[in-house]
Amino acid sequence: MGLLAFAAAGLFAISWNLPESKMAAQWYAVTPDASNPTDESLQVISSTPLPGTPTGTCVESSGKVCAVLLDLDGAPAPSTIKEAKDEGFNTDTKKHRPSN
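RE: above sequence
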């Protein structure tokens, strides 16, 4: 009985000290303003992350922004690219659609 209590206490102590795992960066869809697509205050970020890396036409390195990789670490998604920058999030990794 005493050995069982000792083992349980040991497991509790070990699990108590495990470091919290950091959430991985996730891709978020971005909808730019139709009349002013380069204005970061009008580039709206989805509040829900994409299920993976952007696909389809949202894979280019230039054009109209369509997705941004954000490491929010549990924080709520900012509303726009400008807000993300103002809050100190790195917004350098983006995917784009070709400009027509």
